[in-house]
Each structure stands twice: as structure tokens, then as C-alpha cells.
Write a structure and sequence with these properties.
Blueprint lengths: L10 H33 L10 H5 L6 H27 L2 H29 L7 H13 L10 E3 L6 E3 L16 H29 L19 H6 L1 H4 L4 H6 L8 H7 L5 H27 L1 H9 L9 H26 L1
Helix pairs in contact: 1-6, 1-11, 3-4, 3-11, 4-11, 11-12, 11-13, 12-13
């Protein structure tokens, strides 16, 4: 009788390896958002750091009643969307959270966008054009309107990107969850570079598809298929700065695309993904709420929160008012009074 041949790799091992291979894109995406949360937690002081920023200290606005109403509508949208995102995280077991990505990704993006628009409104930027919003928030990040944990950004042309305010971003990113600050910054740096690369490629496509803007061959007059570094530099101004808000824009994955299925079918820790995402959302929304409260006046903002719809009362909005907004504004007032006395 022939000696049976025992395979070195079993079918189960092959299946496990295939599942792992397919899960890599989703794992990398989880790594990115865990790294963002890790970096925020590591760099955040007890009060969020806003009160130390000259931009925040100088922030003020003259808001008529109609302006306050417009800001209130934006905040209600922001908070109701965050409420839905939190409800999913609280309800879900692993399978539920896995399939919930179809709506939690866009929810996370839109709650931050609405809060950002409320903040921008107080700076005089009152449109809802995505390009305008992206350009203005990029400028605000560079001008140090945001605390250190989220003040990083990428600039430069394709093939020559530079990362700012993230000193460890040049290290090679691993395929594992960050356990140290160096690993978190390396993964955020990679996230910034890949996101800016995608933006540059998309911008090139838009430029070349437009007969009025296409860069053409001097010989044939036809749009160029191959670009040199000099050609990429010509469109750098169109890219603006790449910030944490561009990274969050990556959450805008179409429900009908195959992209979302790659995440749903992956073998990753979905609970950790949702928790990381929710922490980043809460941190950024808290920053924007504090700016709005400063522009509006703390008492008027406190009244706005007191008059919230029933489903938003006695929840995370009040918690952030108590733990982030009030301490920063009242702390600044106390410092100002001490300065006057001195």
C-alpha cells in the first residue's frame, strides 16, 4: 500500500491565511483610526489644550439671533448623528458592528462635518461647498487653531510630500495595532501620505479631463499621459493641506461599492474599530463645541444645551459641556481676571 501523504498546509490553514490576506486592507484602516485615537489620548491634557492657543484666545464673533439659529441647526445635526453612531456602538455585538459599517462610516464623517460647519460659521465661513470647507479647515489647522494632537498636516507635491507636527511620522508603519507613540505616528504618517497621494491622483484626473486645464504635450498638443515632477508641482496649489479632516473623509465609502464589503467580510476587531472612531469623533466635536460656545457666550451656549430635544438630553452633549467646554472657558476667564488684577 502507498504511504499516505500528509499535506504540510491543511485546508483550514489555507482558509485562515486567505482570510487574513483579505483582511489586511481593513486591518490597516483599523490601525489608522486606532493610531489617531492613541495619539490624541497621548497628547491630550486634562482640558484639551485649546485654552493655550492664541488663536482660541482671540476667537470672537458678533452673532445675531438668526446666526445663532443657523449654528443651532448645525449642532443639532451634528449631535443627532453622533447619537445614532453611539447607539450603534452600544447596541452591537461583533456581528452587528461588522454590518453596521455601511452606515457608521458615513455617520462618523457627517457628525464631524456638521460640527465643523458650526465652528466655521463663527469664523465667517458660511457656505456648505465641500471644497471651500476643506480649504478653510486646512488653513485653520496650519494656523494652529487646533490642539497639538490634531494639528498635524501634509503638504508638498506628488512624490515630495512633507509631514508637519508629527515628528515620528517618517518611521515605517507596521501591520499591528500601535502600542507605542512611535508606532501611532508612523501609521498616521502613512495615512496622511496615502490620502494625499489619492487626492493628487484624483486632482490630476480632473485637470486632464478638462480641455481648459489639461497639461498638454508641446509636440502633439494632446493631454499628457505621463507627468514629470514639474507637472505634479503645477497642481500642488489645488491640493491645499492634507489634515485629519481629509483622513476622516476616507470614511465616505459608497454603500454600493465593493470597497465596503472588504471591511464587512474582514476578520478584525470591530468593537475596537467603533470605539476608536467614536473617541476621535467626540474629541473633534468637543473642540468645535468649545469654539462655538466662546463665540456665542457660555451662558447662551448653556441655554442651547438645556433646550435640546428629548433624545439628546442628559447625555454626551451635557457631559462634554461639563468636562471640556466649561473648564476651558471658565479657566480662561479666571486667567484673564488674574492678569487684570496683576
Amino acid at each position: 500500500m502507498e504511504t499516505p501523504i500528509i499535506p504540510l498546509v491543511t485546508d483550514e490553514q489555507k482558509q485562515a491565511e486567505e482570510t487574513w490576506r483579505k483582511s489586511i486592507p481593513a486591518q490597516v484602516f483599523l490601525n489608522y483610526f486606532f493610531a489617531l485615537n492613541y495619539h490624541i489620548q497621548e497628547g491630550d491634557d486634562a482640558l484639551g489644550g485649546l485654552q493655550h492657543l492664541p488663536f482660541f484666545r482671540a476667537h470672537e464673533a458678533e452673532l445675531a439671533d438668526t446666526d445663532v439659529q443657523a449654528i443651532t441647526r448645525l449642532l443639532h445635526t451634528c449631535w443627532s448623528t453622533e447619537y445614532a453612531l453611539r447607539a450603534t456602538a452600544e447596541l452591537g455585538d461583533e456581528d452587528y458592528l461588522r454590518n453596521a459599517l455601511h452606515w457608521t462610516f458615513p455617520q462618523a464623517y457627517h457628525t464631524i462635518l456638521a460640527g465643523l460647519q458650526a465652528f466655521l460659521y463663527t469664523t465667517g465661513v458660511r457656505g456648505n461647498n465641500p471644497s471651500l470647507i476643506r480649504r478653510e479647515v486646512g488653513r485653520l489647522v496650519v494656523r494652529n487653531a487646533y490642539p497639538r494632537p490634531v494639528s498635524f498636516y501634509a503638504a508638498g507635491s506628488y512624490g515630495d510630500f512633507s509631514i508637519h507636527r508629527l515628528p515620528l511620522a517618517g518611521y515605517k508603519a507596521g501591520l499591528h495595532i500601535a502600542g507605542k507613540e512611535i508606532e501611532a505616528q508612523a501609521q498616521i504618517g502613512q495615512f496622511l501620505r496615502t490620502t494625499r497621494k489619492m487626492k493628487a491622483q484624483w486632482t490630476r484626473q480632473q485637470v486632464q479631463n478638462n480641455p481648459n486645464t489639461a497639461i498638454r504635450s508641446q509636440k502633439t498638443g494632446k493631454p499628457l499621459d505621463k507627468w514629470t515632477a514639474a507637472h505634479w508641482q503645477q497642481i500642488t496649489w489645488r491640493l491645499g493641506y492634507t489634515t485629519i479632516f481629509d483622513l476622516l473623509g476616507r470614511l465616505q465609502i459608497s454603500q454600493t461599492s465593493r470597497e465596503i464589503e472588504r471591511y464587512v467580510e474582514a476578520d478584525i476587531d470591530f468593537s475596537l474599530f467603533h470605539q476608536s472612531l467614536l473617541n476621535v469623533v467626540s474629541y473633534l466635536n468637543g473642540i468645535h463645541e468649545t469654539y462655538v460656545a466662546k463665540a456665542m457666550g457660555l451662558e447662551r451656549y448653556q441655554q442651547l444645551v438645556a433646550d435640546l430635544p428629548k433624545h439628546l438630553q442628559h447625555g454626551f452633549v451635557q457631559d462634554r459641556l461639563r468636562t471640556r467646554v466649561e473648564p476651558q472657558l471658565l479657566g480662561q476667564e479666571a486667567e484673564g481676571q488674574m492678569g487684570i488684577a496683576a
